[in-house]
Structures are given as structure tokens and as C-alpha cells.
Amino acid sequence: MWKSALKYGLGFGLLAVVLAINWHGKNGSLGLSDVLSQPLNMIPLVGAAICLTIATLLTFVRWHILVRSIDLPFTLRNAIRLGLIGYYFNTFLPGSIGGDVLKAVAISREQKRRTHSVATVLIDRAVGLWALILVVCLAGTCFYTLDNPMLLTNAYLMHLYRLTLWIIGASIVGWIALGFLPERRADRFARRLLWLPKIGGVAAEFWRAVWLYRKHSTGVIAAVLLSLVSHTFFVLTFHFAVRTFDAPHSNGPGALEQHFLIVPVGLTIQALFPAPGGVGGGEAAFGWLYHVLGRDQATGILGCLAFRLITFGMGMLGYLVYLRMRTTLPATTNIPVTETEDPVIEAESPNMVNVPLAERA
Q1: From CA 164, how far away is CA 270, in angstroms rounded?
Q2: What residue ranges in 229-346 does DSSP mark as E strands?
Q3: Distance between CA atoms of residues 360 and 113, nearest Å
Q4: Which residues, 6 or more positions from 150, have their beta carbon under 8 angstroms from its beta carbon?
Q5: What are the DSSP calls for 204-255, one per residue?
Q6: ∠259-262-267 over CA atoms, to 5°?
Q7: Do 249 and 34 touch, CB atoms closer than 8 A?
Q8: In the predicted model, is pLDDT for residue 167 greater than 60?
Q9: Do 127 and 221 touch, CB atoms closer than 8 A?
């Protein structure tokens, strides 16, 4: 409990510091008080809410594709149901994995192959984060090819673009090489990961999930393509949210092409920040990213806050919808599972050290 309280304090404490530092403008830039003194534009805020709804629903469809790609029985309705409750906990719990843990537990109780069902949640999160980096890489490549001065004249953005090129390139090479890895070597590496302190079980389970999905690449490719669409709507969500605060004397919100470069970075930092919904970390990240663009930090911070308010509202609404969907589930949804149906329950189990991956499958 004290660790959770510390994370809440860290998030909201950092948010208070960010708001205090940027409340008044500096060096000719507008502060939060200046922007908030202007009337709000509600139409862009509605557009942001619509885009966020579409983007979130697409992430549930992506998870459904990943589950079905390894032949697990799973309906789209169930993916939406568990996705909504996972989204709720990701929004209000410290960090952004609380909802993933709940989804993993829920789906594993409804499947006979419980290890594979947990692997779907791990891969779904990995695909989502990788696709965020891919959005920046693709956008940067387009701007670089077209000699866009916004990218070429900004050293920070050029460093960011080169970093994404290295990450995407290295991960693709690693994914291809993984296809030539014999099963015995993959299993041996998984056993070695188990001995890592604290994170050994999670690391071994994630490695098994990656190795499993390497043999089902079609589903992963479909999930990546769908992620590109959903992340496009996430970018549009911020693009509209920041236009809710368009002060007449400011240098204005960023252009759409600028948001395709910075929004995935801000969302990644927000997802990794150990606070409820990444509060504080997201505001600080978007403020800094707007500074990199040469625009008022207050506009980026307020855009992130508007994004967050929509996220909170959708999280609460999703929880209410989840409760409604839960009451109408058939009684046969909870499939009884015995230990003999799936010998792998936890990666840390010492009894599973010498069990090959093929037997787990």
C-alpha cells in the first residue's frame, strides 16, 4: 500500500510542479493562466473524444486478432469486455500494467491453455509500444524524403528520428533471426532467464510469448497494421485536444505533421511513468516536446490534460459498460480448468524448468 501511495504522490506531485512552473509565461511565451483565460473551443474537444473512442476500440480488436491467431477460443465481445475493465485499471492504477495483469488473469481463467492466453496480453502490449515507435519512424522517413525543414532544421527531432530507425531496424533483424532459432536453444534461454532476480519469471514468460508468436507471424503483422491505424487516431486525439486551448496571442498549437512525430513519444513516456495513468509524466513530456517544437509549453501541457480528462471519462464509462456486459454473460463462459490441461501455470515454477516449449504448446 505504501508503494502505491508513493506512486500516486509522485505522479500528482510532479503534476503540481509542472503546473506551478508553467503557470506564468517566461521569455515572451504564454503561461497556463494566459491560455486558460481565453474561451475554450468545445468542438475540437468533442472530436478528440470521438477519435479516442475509435482508437481504444481498435486496440481491443487487435488483442482479439492476437488471441485468435494462436487458435484460442475468444469472441470479439469478450475482448471488448475485458479490454474495457483493463482500460479502466490502466487509467486509475499506478503505472500502465495494472489492467494488463487483470486481463491476463481473466482470460487465463477462461482458457484451457492458460500460458498461451497470458502470452497474448504480453504480446499485445509489446506490439502496441513497437507500433508507436514505428509511427515516428514512418513519419520521419516521409518528412526526411520530402526535405521537410521542420525535421531537418531541428536537431532534437533528427536525433529522435535516427533513434527510431535503429530500434525498428534492430527489432526487424532480430525477429527474422528468431525464425531460425532451434527450439532447444529457445527453451534453454528461457530457463536461463528464470534465474534473473525479481524479473526472471516475467522475462522468461515474455520470451516464450515472443517465440510462440514468431511461429504465427501473420497474426502479428495484422496486429501491427491495425496498431498503425489506432495510433493514428491517438495522434488525432491529441491534435484536436490541444486545439481546445487556442489562445489568440500564442504561437498556436502544433501542426498535424509535428504531432505525428511527438505524440507517440509523449504517449510512450506516459505509459512507462509509474503513476496512475502516467499522470505528471505525460504533462512534463508534452510540455518539453512542445518546447522542442519551439512552441508554448503551456499549450502542450493543457493538450495533455484535455487528453487525460477524456481518458478518465472514457475509463469510467468503460467500467459501467463492463458491468452491464458482465451481467449478460452466459454461465458457460467460465471454462473449468484442471492442472493436467495445462502444465504451465507460472513461469517461476521449478517443476517446469526442463519442460520443452513444444510440450507447453
Answers
A1: 18
A2: none
A3: 9
A4: 143, 157, 255, 257, 258
A5: HHHHHHHHHHHTTHHHHHHHHHHHHHHHHHHHHHHHHHHTTS--TTS--PPP
A6: 105
A7: yes
A8: yes
A9: no
Residue 5 amino acid letter: A
Report the candidate in 234, 236, 277 with the shortest Cα–Cα distance to residue 256.
236
Nearest-10 Cα torsion for 63, 118, 129, 212? -90
Contact at 8 Å (CB) between 131 and 231?
yes
> What mean pLDDT do residues 153-179 have?
91
Q: Which helix (H) or strand (E) element contains residue 340?
A: none
Count how many residues are written for the chain. 361
This prediction has a pTM of 0.82
How far is the CA of 317 from the CAs of 34, 255, 322, in angstroms?
32, 30, 9
- Name the residue ranges covered by the structural domains of the chain: 52-179+215-326
Helix 281-292 and helix 297-327, axial crossing angle in degrees, nearest 10 = 140
What is the Cα–Cα distance from 69 to 144, expressed in whole angstroms? 36
* pLDDT (0 to 100) of residue 356: 46
